[in-house]
């Protein structure tokens, strides 16, 4: 098996700062999460200077670790339920396709039903707000432990299972990027499960906990809190309703499952994407009906662009002969595939990112304009999407060559028309 693995070409193009990034980011990312959560609890919600770390007794509680493990076990059990259909992923290097259960939306509905029963029975959901710091620390511990186990498992994986970007021979970098592409225990796909289940549904749960905490403190949730919960719930519902689409994304098709994705899925998403709701608990905002309508219109337009662009792309990837996309103009490539140059993908090169950014802004606007903290997500997400589209452009140029250059001439703007 070792000899087989040496036949796989080593990756020489390093991302995220290479070895230095792989050394620093596993420290900086958890510290950033703690910094944001602590800042939310301060009177002025300022990002600078950083608030002091509380005593270790306030950062680590074994019960929060057990709580998160129980949450993961619940979502894992729902993942294994024989409901919904089974879809095939993209073709792998060895010519095979993995099978995936498409039941994330059912998992969300069942989780909601369980909450509807448990809350009237006295489930103390306010516990989440009161213990956000130890919950975030426990999520970081779980992410790090899972990443170590994933890397050890990858050392025994066949060559065909290794992720191209996590095959450098540098253990630290491969641990961070993910050495194995689709690590599984039997038919249980660990990366696919973490991508959409415990963190994404956990994000909704945290938002609900913030809403209930605000109602407990002030008698009722504010309009700003209701909008944030509604907008972000729509986003999660959309992701789980269109779960099959994730099988064509960069995370599943190309990136290995290492610390980068594990921490992102299990800690970063639920604890930083819920930052606006967290902020509103301690920094309530008055929002007029007209302001709420304008923000809702922005979110609706962003969602419309995001959904239509993604649907068009996924239909074309799955079946270019589908009548809904067969009439669109394309450019032939040397690989035999074709590039869309009309429809949404003839508007800008990444129209789904444009919709994403519009929704991100709509999530933050209910928090007012006097604090930068609730806009962290917009700033971070803009940087993430620019970095992701840069990675995508580089790979497409390498893969499609002249055809990609022709596409870029036809569609000069990357995300924002006439601006970027």
UniProtKB/TrEMBL annotation:
Q: Where in the cell is it found?
A: Endomembrane system; Endoplasmic reticulum membrane; Microsome membrane
Q: Which UniProt keywords apply?
A: Cholesterol biosynthesis, Cholesterol metabolism, Endoplasmic reticulum, Lipid biosynthesis, Lipid metabolism, Membrane, Oxidoreductase, Steroid biosynthesis, Steroid metabolism, Sterol biosynthesis, Sterol metabolism, Transmembrane, Transmembrane helix
Q: What is its EC number?
A: 1.3.1.70
First-level EC class: oxidoreductase
- Pfam families hit by this protein: ERG4_ERG24
Q: Where are the transmembrane segments?
A: 20-39, 59-81, 102-127, 133-152, 220-237, 257-275, 287-306, 360-386
Is Cell wall biogenesis/degradation there in the keyword field? no
Query: Which Gene Ontology terms of cellular component type are present?
Result: endoplasmic reticulum membrane; nuclear inner membrane
Give the pathway: Steroid biosynthesis; cholesterol biosynthesis
Q: Which reaction does it catalyse?
A: 4,4-dimethyl-5alpha-cholesta-8,24-dien-3beta-ol + NADP(+) = 4,4-dimethyl-5alpha-cholesta-8,14,24-trien-3beta-ol + NADPH + H(+); 4,4-dimethyl-8,14-cholestadien-3beta-ol + NADPH + H(+) = 4,4-dimethyl-5alpha-cholest-8-en-3beta-ol + NADP(+); 5alpha-cholest-8,14-dien-3beta-ol + NADPH + H(+) = 5alpha-cholest-8-en-3beta-ol + NADP(+)
* Membrane-related topology note: Multi-pass membrane protein
The biological processes this protein is annotated with in GO are: cholesterol biosynthetic process
Superkingdom to which the source organism belongs: Eukaryota
Example of a GO MF term? Delta14-sterol reductase activity
Q: Which PANTHER family match?
A: DELTA(14)-STEROL REDUCTASE, DELTA(14)-STEROL REDUCTASE TM7SF2
Q: What does this protein do?
A: Catalyzes the reduction of the C14-unsaturated bond of lanosterol, as part of the metabolic pathway leading to cholesterol biosynthesis.
Concerning its family, UniProt says: Belongs to the ERG4/ERG24 family.
Q: What is this protein called?
A: Delta(14)-sterol reductase TM7SF2
**What is the scientific name of the source organism?**
Acipenser oxyrinchus oxyrinchus
> Gene that codes for this?
TM7SF2
């Amino acid at each position: 098996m070792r000899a087989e693995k040496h036949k796989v070409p080593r990756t020489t193009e390093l991302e995220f700062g290479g070895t230095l990034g792989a050394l620093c980011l596993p420290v900086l990312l958890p510290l950033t999460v703690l910094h944001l959560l602590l800042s939310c609890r301060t009177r002025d919600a300022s990002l600078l200077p950083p608030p002091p770390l509380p005593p270790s007794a306030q950062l680590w509680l074994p019960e929060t670790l057990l709580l998160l493990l129980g949450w993961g076990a619940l979502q894992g059990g729902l993942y294994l339920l024989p409901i919904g259909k089974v879809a095939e992923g993209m073709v792998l290097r060895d010519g095979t396709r993995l099978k995936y259960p498409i039941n994330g939306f059912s998992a969300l509905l069942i989780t909601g039903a369980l909450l509807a029963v448990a809350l009237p029975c006295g489930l103390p959901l306010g516990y989440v707000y009161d213990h956000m710091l130890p919950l975030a620390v426990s999520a970081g511990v779980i992410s790090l432990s899972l990443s170590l186990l994933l890397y050890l498992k990858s050392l025994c994986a066949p060559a065909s299972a290794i992720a191209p970007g996590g095959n450098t021979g540098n253990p630290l970098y491969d641990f961070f990027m993910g050495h194995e592409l689709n690590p599984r225990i039997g038919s249980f796909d660990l990366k696919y499960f973490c991508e959409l289940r415990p963190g994404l549904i956990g994000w909704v749960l945290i938002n609900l906990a913030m809403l209930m905490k605000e109602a407990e403190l002030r008698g009722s949730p504010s309009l700003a809190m209701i909008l944030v919960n509604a907008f972000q719930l729509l986003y999660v519902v959309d992701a789980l309703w269109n779960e099959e689409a994730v099988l064509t994304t960069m995370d599943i098709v190309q990136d290995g499952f290492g610390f980068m994705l594990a921490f992102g899925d299990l800690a970063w998403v639920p604890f930083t994407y819920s930052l606006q709701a967290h902020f509103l608990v301690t920094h309530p905002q008055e929002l007029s009906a007209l302001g709420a309508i304008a923000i809702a219109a922005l979110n609706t337009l962003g969602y419309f662009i995001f959904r239509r662009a993604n649907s068009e792309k996924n239909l074309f990837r799955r079946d270019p002969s589908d009548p809904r996309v067969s009439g669109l103009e394309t450019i032939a490539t040397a690989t035999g595939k074709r590039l869309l140059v009309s429809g949404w993908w003839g508007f800008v090169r990444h129209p789904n990112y444009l919709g994403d950014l519009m929704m991100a802004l709509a999530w933050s606007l209910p928090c007012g304009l006097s604090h930068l903290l609730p806009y962290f997500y917009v700033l971070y997400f803009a940087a993430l999407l620019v970095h992701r589209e840069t990675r995508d452009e580089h790979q497409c140029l390498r893969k499609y060559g002249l055809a990609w250059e022709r596409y870029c001439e036809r569609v000069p703007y990357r995300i924002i028309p006439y601006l970027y």
